[in-house]
Amino acid sequence: MRIFLRAVEETIQQATPEAPTQARVAAVSFIQRFGSSLNQHLHFHSVAADGLFGPADDEEESEFYQAGELTSELLDRLTETLRRKILRYLVNHGLIDEIDAQEMLTWQHHGGFSVDASVCIPEWDRLGLEALIRYCARHPFAESRLTYIESDRVVYRLKSGNTDGQTHLILSPIEFIQRLAQLIPPPRVHRNVYYGAIAPNCRLRPYVIKQAGPAALTELTLKQAKEKMGLAQTQQLPTDISLQPEKQTAERKRKASRAWAMLLARIYEVLPLICNNCKQPMKIVAFVTHPQTIKTILNAIGEDPQLPSLAKPRAPPEEMDCTYPDTEPEYDYNQVPATW
C-alpha cells in the first residue's frame, strides 16, 4: 500500500508542475480482509484527490493545486513503476524467487498490473463521493442476502455467481460463525490509513480539514466565479448570478439508527416497552440510582437484588449432531425464503 500511494503521489506531482515542492497529495486507504463470498481476501481500497495540497502565502491556510491531464504516458510510467517496485518488495521478503521476478518483468502489457484514471468524481457531487466511500468501507457481508432454511441451515446469496456456477452458500450455523471469525481484523491494527496531507503528523492536515465540507465548497465556487468574471475577490457578485453547480443531486435523507427496543423486538419477538399488565406503552417516570433504593424496589417486586454471577467461558462444540433422514427434501435454492 505504501508503494502504491507513493507512486500515485509522484505521478500527480508530475502532472502538477505549478505546485510547490512541499505540496502533498491527500489519500485515505481502507484495508479489507474479505471477499464477496465470505472468504479471506486481503486487499485495500484507496481514495485520493486529483491534485496537491500546499501551504498558502500566509502559511495559515492550505491551497489546492488541481492536477493536469493524466496522460497515457504518465499512467504507463506509473504502472511500470508499480510493477518494478512491488516485484522487488516480494523478492526482498522471500515471497517469490528473483528469477521469477525477472521473467515477470519481461511479460507484455505490464504483466498483470494495470492503472485506470478514467473515472473522477467532481467536487460538487457529494453524494457520489459518499457512495464511493461507503463502497470502500463496506461490511464483510450483506444482511439482505442472508436467509435461513428450517433454522438449521444458513443460506448466503452471492452477489455474482462463482466460476463454477454457484450462486448460494449453504452453511451450518457453526460453519457460518467460523467464516465470520476468520474475517475479524487482528488487534491493534488500523483498518483506515491516512496518507499525505491528511496524515496524522502532517502540518497541513488541520488546514486541509478546515477546507472540507459544503461550506468550503461554496467559498471555492464563489472564488472561481469571481475569477471567471474578472472581478477582484473583495468585490461582490451580481445578484442575478447563481452559484449552484450545473448538475444538482437531490439530498438523500439519512436513515436514523434503529432504536434498541425495536432491535430487541426483532430478536426476541417481544416489545420491551409494552406493559405486561395493561398492554400500554411505558413511559420513563424517574431514574433510580441509589443502591439501597434499588435493592428495596427489587425486594418489593420479588426479584433478587444480587447481581448474577458470570458463567465461565467455554469453547464452541467441536462436533454437531448432523443426523438427517435418509432422504432429504429437495430445495429450490433459486427461490430463497425471505429473511425473518
Question: What does this molecule look like?
Answer:
- This protein has 340 residues and is of the alpha+beta class.
- It folds into three domains: 2-139 and 187-229, no CATH class; 141-182, no CATH class; 260-300, no CATH class.
- The protein is built from nine helices and eight strands.
- It has helices at residues 2-15, 72-92, 98-105, 126-136, 173-182, 205-210, 214-229, 260-268, 291-300, and strands at residues 26-34, 40-48, 51-55, 62-66, 146-149, 153-157, 168-171, 192-196.
- The strands form three sheets. Strands 2-1-8 form a three-stranded antiparallel β-sheet, with no helix packed on it. A three-stranded antiparallel β-sheet has the order 5-6-7. A two-stranded antiparallel sheet has the order 3-4.
- A hairpin with a 5-residue loop joins strand 1 (26-34) and strand 2.
- It starts with a helix and ends in a 40-residue tail after the last helix.
Summarize this structure briefly:
The protein has 340 residues and is of the alpha+beta class.
Structural topology:
Blueprint: H1 2-15, E1 26-34, E2 40-48, E3 51-55, E4 62-66, H2 72-92, H3 98-105, H4 126-136, E5 146-149, E6 153-157, E7 168-171, H5 173-182, E8 192-196, H6 205-210, H7 214-229, H8 260-268, H9 291-300
Antiparallel strand pairs: 1-2, 1-8, 3-4, 5-6, 6-7
Helix pairs in contact: 1-2, 2-3
